[in-house]
Amino acid sequence: MTLELRNCTYGYRRWKQPVLQDFSYSLPEGLTVLLGPNGAGKSTLLKLAASVTTPQKGRVALDGAPAGTAAYRQAVAWMPQDIVPMPTLTAREYVAYIGWLKGMNRTDAWKQARKALARVELTDKIDARTSQLSGGQLRRVGVAGALVHGARVLLLDEPTAGMDPYQRRVFRDILRGLTGDVRVLLSTHDVADLAEEADHVTVMYGGSVLHHGTTHTFLAHTPPGTLEGRAAEGAYTALLRSHNVAA
Ligand SMILES: Nc1ncnc2c1ncn2[C@@H]1O[C@H](COP(=O)(O)OP(=O)(O)OP(=O)(O)O)[C@@H](O)[C@H]1O
Questions:
Q1: pTM of the full predicted structure?
Q2: What CATH number does the domain containing 134 carry?
Q3: Best of 14, 25, 42 to mutate for ligand 1, by most ligand atoms within 8 A of CB?
Q4: Does 17 reside within a domain?
Q5: Mutate which of 44, 185, 188 to test ligand 1's pocket (most atoms within 8 Å of Cβ)?
């Protein structure tokens, strides 16, 4: 399975410098953590891969199926950085609605929404209005929305932001429990928490990829003498500094 952006250019304003220019990226197998300072282009990359935005130039495809086609949209799940509550919908209705938008029939979407909410331990909030959930609970609803339709590619934009430590652990267990050839691209500022779990690490800055490789090659940037448990943070900072980027 290959999700690929090839020679993509994307800018939010036509008269401004594009955020991504002639940008190519291929999502490796397993879990890839996407790191980078604010404004690096991480969300933009995820939105292009999720086919919620379309590049002005270049192409995005999954195994040859172009982004935007039904086959592509069903295979790819996206959790946006900002989960906007829908005041009239309950958590279950919200997740089922995402499933339905992704092509599930209503009965399946309804059943799978309950299961997806159980996976993020929100069974007790299943009938709560999304507008009445806390920020962390709403993010867990977002994760459930990404899980509901059995996608082969999960694109998650800062999924753990605002989650308490216990829920971060639950989330990591969900990632570990994904079976089959499911690929995950996950952006985070939570370097220490997730980078060491990943199979691959991508670091972006200024719309470019500074590093893209296995976690092993990423951690090789860790400066000697770094405290235990700080290896990923150390590697990240050292990588940015080696490119003259203030971390
Ligand atoms: N809707 C928008 N309209 C105009 N410019 C935007 C918009 N969204 C993002 N940008 C700009 O695009 C650039 C990349 O933003 P993007 O959100 O992809 O970065 P990011 O790496 O996800 O940042 P963060 O870590 O802060 O979420 C930034 O310069 C940002 O100001």
A1: 0.95
A2: 3.40.50.300
A3: 42
A4: yes
A5: 44
